[in-house]
């Protein structure tokens, strides 16, 4: 075998994938040709260096960073991703125009509403539906609908604007509004509900936990990995463990995120270290 | 691996986390050796994000390793080339290896890295690069020979 053909077989020769007869012919050519021999030695050395280099482990934290990046993006195939894809096709100018039209419509509606209020008959006694006093509401006017909010504050007289307004009072709400300043009691752990939190709600809670220097765990104290909720898996309950120093601010943030009155935490609780407190969160898609 | 695809399709969020753990070293090594240290991590992350977006369309019978490597090759080829100097934080032999690799054109570099660093078979490489087996062997051989001559030249200079 001449040097040209032997050189073309050097890789296979070094990989030991040549048939025996062909490998012997290449070996003879290498022994005859000094340049070919030098190429073999250099290639052998390069192969050694490449094998030595080997796989390089991904940088520390790469896995966690990538998982977090992926978690921050909408789940493929989800309604959010579907909506994003479609919204991205709408020209920005159209979005701006629609937005401006909406703002104008809201402003116009408020103006009209204000004018209607100003034009309404002013004497309190003539107002057909608004009760002038609590006594009349409770006894003399039973047909007037009474909301839970009115029941909750029976001592407060209606404001002049309420009394003058001809619009009927809002329908009774089943959810009790919660003031953000509801005090935090360290001796009474609470559970919070987040309804209609969306498919990424657990990641929102994980962010809240990070910002509170806390950790998300299950009932046994095992670290909880956030995941997307979907129709088949639309509910999750998780415990947020934070330092007692951060508990009031965490309580306030959970109240704000939940928008509902928390309830006393009963049943199993994860193990806590000294100086820690726990909140339970029930999140729904 | 096909089980991972099925679990991903079923909405199991841990499936992709396991995929990253299983494949991150191969993907990172290929990126590092082909485009250098500067952009390797960012590109690697982009590859996994793209994989996450595309995996819903992949049949459960697909070989996930080959599919991910094909995606990696595609995004490496699309990555803008830079004249990066060899990383001086690498120890000498690793820096020399990287320097020799950077003298190869990208198609040869990818073939050589898959064969000699990731130790893939020629058949697997030809499948990933969508080339015939003969072309794949030729690329590996020419890449190795170019690196060998580069090494000889460096040694002569020294």
Quick tags:
heterodimer; A: 285 residues; alpha+beta; 3 domains; 5-stranded mixed beta sheet; B: 158 residues; mainly alpha; Rna Polymerase Sigma Factor, Chain: A; Arc Repressor Mutant, subunit A; 76% helix; elongated
Question: Can you describe this structure in just a few lines?
Answer:
The complex is a heterodimer of chains A (285) and B (158). Helix content of chain A is 47%, strand content 10%. By secondary structure, chain A is α+β, with helices and mostly antiparallel strands.
Write up this protein.
The complex is a heterodimer of chains A (285) and B (158). Chain A has 285 residues and is an alpha+beta fold. Chain A has three domains: 3-53, no CATH class; 108-172, no CATH class; 190-284, no CATH class. Chain A is built from twelve helices and five strands. Chain A has a five-stranded mixed beta sheet with strand order 2-3-5-1-4, covered by helices on one side. By secondary structure, chain B is mainly α. Chain B folds into two domains: 1-84, RNA polymerase sigma factor, region 2, helix turn helix motif (Rna Polymerase Sigma Factor, Chain: A), CATH 1.10.1740; 88-158, Arc Repressor Mutant, subunit A (Orthogonal Bundle), CATH 1.10.10.10. Chain B has helices at 2-9, 13-35, 37-54, 64-78, 92-102, 106-117, 122-129, 133-157. Chain B starts with a helix and ends with a helix. The A-B interface holds A 7-8, 10-12, 38-39, 42-43, 45-47, 49-59, 62-63, 65-67, 69-70, 73, 76-77, 225, 227-228, 230, 232-233 and B 11, 13-14, 16-17, 20-21, 24-29, 32-33, 41, 44-45, 48-49, 52-56, 93-94, 96-97, 100, 112-113, 116-119, 137, 140-141, 144-145, 147-149, 151-152.
Strands, helices and their partners?
The complex is a heterodimer of chains A (285) and B (158).
Chain A: H1 3-8, H2 10-15, H3 20-32, H4 34-53, H5 62-71, H6 79-89, H7 92-119, H8 134-140, H9 148-152, H10 160-164, E1 190-194, H11 201-211, E2 215-217, E3 235-243, H12 247-258, E4 263-264, E5 276-284
Helix pairs in contact in A: 3-4
Chain B: H1 2-9, H2 13-35, H3 37-54, H4 64-78, H5 92-102, H6 106-117, H7 122-129, H8 133-157
Helix pairs in contact in B: 1-2, 2-3, 2-4, 2-6, 3-4, 4-7, 6-8, 7-8
């Amino acid at each position: 075998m001449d040097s040209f053909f032997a050189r073309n077989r050097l890789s296979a020769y070094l990989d030991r994938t040549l048939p025996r007869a062909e490998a012997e012919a290449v070996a003879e050519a290498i022994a005859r040709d000094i340049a070919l021999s030098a190429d073999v030695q250099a290639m052998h050395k390069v192969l050694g260096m490449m094998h030595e280099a080997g796989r390089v482990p991904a940088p520390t934290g790469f896995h966690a960073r990538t998982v977090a990046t992926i978690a921050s993006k909408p789940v493929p195939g989800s309604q959010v991703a579907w909506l994003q894809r479609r919204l991205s096709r709408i020209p920005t100018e159209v979005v701006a125009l629609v937005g401006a039209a909406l703002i104008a419509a809201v402003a116009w509606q408020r103006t009209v509403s204000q004018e209607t209020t100003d034009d309404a008959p002013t004497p309190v006694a003539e107002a057909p539906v608004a009760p002038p006093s609590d006594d009349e509401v409770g006894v003399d006017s039973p047909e007037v609908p009474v909301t839970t909010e009115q029941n909750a504050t029976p001592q407060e007289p209606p404001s002049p604007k309420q009394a003058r307004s001809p619009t009927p009072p809002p329908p009774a709400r089943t959810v009790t509004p919660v003031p953000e300043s509801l005090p935090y009691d360290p001796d009474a752990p609470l559970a919070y509900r987040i309804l209609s939190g969306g498919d990424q709600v657990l990641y929102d809670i994980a962010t809240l936990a990070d910002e509170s220097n806390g950790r998300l765990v299950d009932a046994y104290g095992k670290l909880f990995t956030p995941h997307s909720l979907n129709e088949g898996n639309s509910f999750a309950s998780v415990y947020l463990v934070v330092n007692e120093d951060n508990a009031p601010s965490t309580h306030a943030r959970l109240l704000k995120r939940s928008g509902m009155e928390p309830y006393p935490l009963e049943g199993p609780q994860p193990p806590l270290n000294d100086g820690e407190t726990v909140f339970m969160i029930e999140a729904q898609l | 691996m096909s089980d991972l695809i099925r679990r991903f399709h079923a909405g199991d969020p841990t499936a992709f986390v396991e995929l990253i753990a299983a494949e991150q070293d191969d993907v990172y090594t290929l990126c590092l050796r082909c485009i250098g240290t500067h952009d390797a991590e960012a590109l690697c992350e982009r590859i996994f994000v793209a994989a996450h977006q595309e995996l819903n369309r992949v049949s459960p019978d697909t070989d996930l390793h080959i599919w991910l490597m094909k995606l990696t090759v595609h995004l490496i080829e699309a990555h803008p080339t830079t004249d990066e100097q060899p990383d001086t934080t690498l120890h000498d032999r690793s820096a020399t290896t990287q320097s020799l690799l950077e003298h190869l054109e990208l198609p040869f570099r990818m073939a050589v890295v898959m064969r000699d660093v990731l130790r893939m078979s020629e058949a697997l490489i030809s499948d990933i690069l969508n080339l015939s087996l003969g072309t794949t062997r030729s690329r590996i051989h020419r890449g190795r020979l170019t690196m060998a001559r580069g090494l000889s030249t460096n040694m002569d200079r020294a």
